[in-house]
Amino acid sequence: MRPDNAPSGGGGGNSSGGGRGSSVTGFDPEGLERAAKAAKDLDASRNSSAAIELIKTQEATKQHEAAAKRAEYDAYTQQQRASNIER
To answer: What does the alpha-carbon distance between residue 71 and residue 15 come to, in Å, rounded to a whole number?
Structure first.
């Protein structure tokens, strides 16, 4: 079984037909380049600080939701332990 980004096993060099895409190591830099371009565009935007604050708020919300689920799971675990002790 080979990873999705592994280079194909043809002869030497880049087997993707030349051009951009993957290198000999199988790393495809296009995604990284798109992310860098998006970061530059965001930095240049006049709404960049609002976008960053929105992302921070969304991340905080996700963390609070995860903490609530952990607390709910811990309460359920304690309840199950108590019911097992009673038996």
So the answer is: 51
Query: Which of 40, 42, 37, 15 minimizes the C-alpha distance to 26?
Result: 15
Q: How far lies 82's CA from each of 3, 13, 71, 73, 85, in Å? A: 46, 64, 16, 14, 5
Q: Can you give the three-state secondary structure of 44-55, one letter per residue? A: HCCCHHHHHHHH
Residue with tokens 């709910």: 72
Q: Which residues of the chain have pLDDT under 70?
A: 1-23
Q: Which amino acid is at 23?
A: S
Q: Which two tokens stand for residue 21?
A: 């895409």
Q: What is the pTM of this model?
A: 0.48
